[in-house]
Amino acid sequence: MLPCVTGDFTGVTIPGTRSEPGETQTVTNLVSPDYFKTMEVPIIRDRAFDEHATRTAGTASAVISLAMARRFWPGQDALGKEFSAGRDQMYQVVGIAPDLQNLHLGQSDGPFFYAPLAATSSDAVDAKILMRTAANRPAAVSAIPGIVRQLDANVIVTTESYEQI
What we know:
Elements: E1 8-13, E2 24-31, H1 35-38, E3 45-46, E4 60-65, H2 66-72, E5 82-85, E6 89-97, E7 112-116, H3 137-151
Parallel strand pairs: 2-7, 4-6
Antiparallel strand pairs: 1-2, 1-5, 3-6, 4-7, 5-6
């Protein structure tokens, strides 16, 4: 998901609560571990997930927003807590990020979580690659399609600056 462009809503269930499975909608963003550094999203409590965190049949790592921590675990420490989302994927909170404006400028997202994108999953089909560069931006942008074609000639590549989006 690109900030201020799209959002993926998913139902979240907290084990041990009386809510129906998936009753509470949150926004989720499937990202790589480098997302936080690239987009300059600080982790204000504990840590982000690493390259070993993938969504599998087991419990995956998640970074949640402060709003999600307040909503689901009021007055408690959310670190280490578990929740399920999507197709009954279990997540464990490993970090907390500030509330951001990913969906609408000027409006906080509310409960939100970041989950690791599994490169082998169907979610990777519509994946976006974000790049931050201090170098010559036009040269870097024009090099991207050639680099991607070297990796996989079947991938369709479009490039846009964050300002264009």
